[in-house]
Amino acid sequence: MKNLRKQWHLTQEELAALIGVTRGLLSMYESGRRQLPTPASIRLAELHLLLQQPSTSKIQPAVLLQRQQAQQTKTARLLNDRAGKAAMEAARAARLLDKMQQRYKQLYQKMLLIQATLPTAPTDSLQKAALLHMEVTVIDAMERCSPARQAWVAYKLATSKALERAALNAGKLIKGA
């Protein structure tokens, strides 16, 4: 009996409930201290036969089927929501990356103009001071949209797109199940 219980991956409590005895009695039956009563023996044999039938593996208990369907619906909804959020994050990252790239090009051109004008500005002049101030301001602005920061936003864009694809693919698996 213990071998059957182990083969069926049942605890003593579970098998005892299935054959209609207490866990303590089942323990005594397994250890050979008591004889299994006839009704429990019949029930054990019925369970064994039930699991031997090939059609049993195709049977889905209604409760299990309902729970699985509810879980699939919930999971499909969560995956769909996650795909939507990832799509919004990807769109936001794409817009940000585009703005950063455009801004960096503008600032780079401005820096070229400043660098070209600086050598011609008279020393200790108001023009030179203004150009040096502009240079510092442009450098600070360029750091906020630097290629390194653009790479970080591109990474966020790629991961958001990957999350969206993964959620959509998982949703297809759920629908196909």
UniProtKB/TrEMBL annotation:
Ranges for domain HTH cro/C1-type: 1-47
Protein's UniProt name: Helix-turn-helix domain-containing protein
Highest taxon, organism lineage: Bacteria
Annotated organism of origin: Niabella pedocola
